């Protein structure tokens, strides 16, 4: 009776083999993103991803032993980038207007440059996050709380108007991610095959203006003569 293979010893982090493996895994994940976005989790096969990546199914499964492992890697990549942006947001040393402008810009840039990745994440969430819900809760919630603390600090310092920071962030996510997840609808309405760079620039200006208007501290009303 054949015995199970022992797991390979981890490679030194900066060895050539480790770097080559990281590069190949990244290439596989890049191919998988589009297939998952087009076919969904259930409709995606390892064989299709392997063929698109120029590998045999057996070779691909050496790096990702199951479809779920590959799917997890794809979603990890999306969440890693998203959380990096949120980490930058939780910086009380910067001015709120600069931080929020940069955050909107970064989120729209991700939607423009990696629409397939955004759609895979959206499909998982729309489906109730059956395979990734725990990771979202464990990783997003603590950082969201840090961001909220920064907003509360800004409010207490009089830098921004009192606002429900949680729902402001929800609104930013919805507005920016829609440029990836619903780009087909937007392009159809605009009468073109796909969104252009100008569409993203126009969207960025409007979203930034709306967000900054929402946090702007209103000057006190002038005293009337009766006062």
Largest sheet: none
Query: What's the helix-strand series?
Result: HHHHHHHHHH
Number of helices: 10
**How does the overall form come out from the CA principal axes?**
globular
Q: Which strand-content bin applies to the residues?
A: under 5%
The Rg value, from CA coordinates, equals: 22 Å
CATH fold-type name of the domain at 75-215: Tetracycline Repressor, domain 2
How confident overall, as mean pLDDT? 89
Outline the low-pLDDT stretches.
1-9
Task: Give a description of the structure.
The chain is mainly α and 227 residues long. It contains 10 helices and no strands. Helix 4 packs antiparallel against helix 5, helix 5 (96-113) runs antiparallel to helix 10 and helix 6 (115-126) crosses helix 8 (165-181). The protein has a domain at 75-215: Tetracycline Repressor, domain 2. Residues 45-64 bind DNA.
Summarize the structure.
GO terms for molecular function: DNA-binding transcription factor activity; transcription cis-regulatory region binding. This protein is an all-alpha fold and 227 residues long.
List the helices and strands and how they pair.
Elements: H1 16-43, H2 46-52, H3 57-63, H4 67-89, H5 96-113, H6 115-126, H7 133-156, H8 165-181, H9 183-190, H10 197-215
Helix pairs in contact: 1-2, 1-4, 1-6, 2-3, 4-5, 4-6, 4-7, 5-8, 5-10, 6-8, 8-10
């Amino acid at each position: 009776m054949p015995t199970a293979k022992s797991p390979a010893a981890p490679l030194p982090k900066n060895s050539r083999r480790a770097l080559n493996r990281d590069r190949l895994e990244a290439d596989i994940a890049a191919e998988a993103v589009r297939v998952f976005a087009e076919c969904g989790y259930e409709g995606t096969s390892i064989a299709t991803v392997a063929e698109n990546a120029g590998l045999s199914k057996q070779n691909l499964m050496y790096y990702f032993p199951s479809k779920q492992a590959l799917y997890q890697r794809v979603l990890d990549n999306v969440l890693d980038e998203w959380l990096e942006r949120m980490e930058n947001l939780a910086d009380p040393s910067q001015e709120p207007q600069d931080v929020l402008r940069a955050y909107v810009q970064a989120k729209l840039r991700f939607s423009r440059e990696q629409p397939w990745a955004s759609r895979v994440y959206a499909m998982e969430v729309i489906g109730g996050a059956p395979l990734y819900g725990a990771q979202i809760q464990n990783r997003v919630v603590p950082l969201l709380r840090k961001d909220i603390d920064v907003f509360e600090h800004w409010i207490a310092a009089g830098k921004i108007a009192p606002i429900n920071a949680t729902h402001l962030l929800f609104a930013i996510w919805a507005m920016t991610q829609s440029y990836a997840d619903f780009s087909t609808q937007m392009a159809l309405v605009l009468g073109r095959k796909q969104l252009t760079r100008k569409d993203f620039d126009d969207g960025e200006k409007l979203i930034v203006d709306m967000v900054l208007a929402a946090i702007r501290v209103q000057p006190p009303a002038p005293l009337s003569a009766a006062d």
